[in-house]
Amino acid sequence: MINIVLFGKPGAGKGTQAEFLKEKYNLMHLSTGDIFRFNIKNETELGKLAKTYMDKGDLVPDEVTIQMLQSEVDQNPTAAGFLFDGFPRTLAQAEALDAFLATKGQNIRATVALEADDEILVARLLERGKTSGRIDDQDEEKIRNRYQEYNEKTAPLMHYYREQGKFFAVDGIGTIQEVTARLSAVLDTF
Q: Are the C-beta atoms of 122 and 187 separated by less than 8 Å?
């Protein structure tokens, strides 16, 4: 089983690249953003709670995120592997994911970070916000708050996974095909 973590700041192209990667490597794509939106749309208890944080531009607390993700993994016991998109975002989440996967005799094979300049990403999100209807993509202050949260909480994951020999950085700027080729060059080594 191949389990991969794809991360990067909001707007870095994780969702776009995940579509290509899941097909190429036959992975089940688990996007925390999609999982949150599903739970919010269906007004589950976890969804209502997650929405209160997302509307402020804050990250959803670990315990809420982990419960949603574990439910998704448990619902797909025959998957060939998982592509985790947007999770883990904190060291505590990474440790919880490792512990959860270990109970299933699995682990994370690689983590890949899509890297891009903040100003390019802010422009991408503001543009996306015009058509997506997502409140958190329509306010530059909220976007920058999400980047600050990323820098403080997610960036330390690079060190965590680098120590395990599982971290790879990929330039996230370019055409979709160029970025996909860069990601494939890394993942084809596994």
A: no
The pLDDT, as a whole number, for residue 166 is: 96
Known catalytic residues are 14, 89, 128, 134, 146
Which pLDDT score is estimated for 123?
93
User: What 3 state SS string does 73-121 have?
Assistant: HHCCCCCCEEEEECCCCCHHHHHHHHHHHHCCCCCCCEEEEEECCHHHH
Task: Report the Cα 36 to chain-centroid distance in Å.
Answer: 12
Distance CA 66, CA 62 (A): 6
The tokens 């109970």 sit on which residue? 103
The answer to whether 17 and 6 are in contact (CB under 8 A) is: yes
Task: Specify the 3-state DSSP secondary structure of 169.
Answer: strand
Given a cut of 80, whether residue 59 has pLDDT beyond it is no
pTM of the model: 0.82
Long-range contacts made by residues 16-23, C-beta under 8 angstroms, separation at least 24?
16/176, 17/114, 17/176, 17/179, 17/180, 17/183, 18/83, 18/85, 20/176, 20/180, 20/183, 21/83, 21/180, 21/183, 21/187, 22/83
